[in-house]
Write a structure and sequence with these properties.
Strands 1-4-3-2-5-6 form a 6-stranded mixed β-sheet, with helices on both faces. By secondary structure, the protein is α/β, with parallel strands linked by helices. The protein has helices spanning 4-17, 86-96, 110-118, 132-144, 149-155; strands spanning 20-27, 39-44, 60-66, 71-82, 102-105, 122-125.
Length: 165
């Protein structure tokens, strides 16, 4: 039989090693139904204007819906992780971005990039810390012209029937 003090010590030790993950999503409510195919794209940003944050440190992602002809800001995903477990920090960000096809970041580590790709989310480094609006315009230009096969597939991410269909 374990003593109460030993049980209390074990619970305290376990609690100190537990990671607390919080994810909040804020969506703009408005008319749905953009024309044509669109995809959700996330941008890691500290100032809501530029792609300037490392994926693993990002506390918020700006979400845009982007298509060849139209694009618009649709909301914010906030991620807050308390604890030291890197795998939990990566997973909290990945799960918050599950419906996105692309995520633009300033930097990203190998394990995080691999986890995103496994979830069919393509990470893209923005080395120049460009404005989100400029990145969206460039992406639209590629979508209008001749997108590479991986980008065409990403554009169709939201159009695929789910397991219930």
């Amino acid at each position: 039989m374990l003593s109460k003090s030993l049980i209390s010590s074990l619970l305290t030790l376990y609690a100190s090693r537990t990671t607390m993950i919080r994810t909040r999503r804020f969506d703009i409510v408005g008319p749905r139904g953009r024309k044509g195919l669109t995809m959700k794209v996330a941008f890691a940003s500290t100032d809501k204007i530029h792609v300037n944050e490392h994926f693993g440190r990002a506390e918020q992602f700006m979400i845009w819906e982007v298509g060849p002809e139209e694009a618009g800001f649709t909301g914010v995903v906030q991620v807050r992780t308390e604890g030291d477990d890197e795998a939990d920090r990566i997973e909290s960000r990945c799960s918050g971005l599950a419906d996105c096809a692309l995520v633009y970041v300033a930097e990203i580590g190998g394990p995080a990039a691999a986890r995103l790709v496994a979830k069919k989310i393509h990470p893209i480094k923005s080395k120049e810390r460009e404005a989100i609006a400029v990145v969206v315009e460039k992406l639209q230009e590629v979508l209008r012209d001749s997108p590479p096969p991986w980008l065409r597939k990403a554009l169709l991410k939201g159009e695929r029937p789910g397991p219930d269909a």
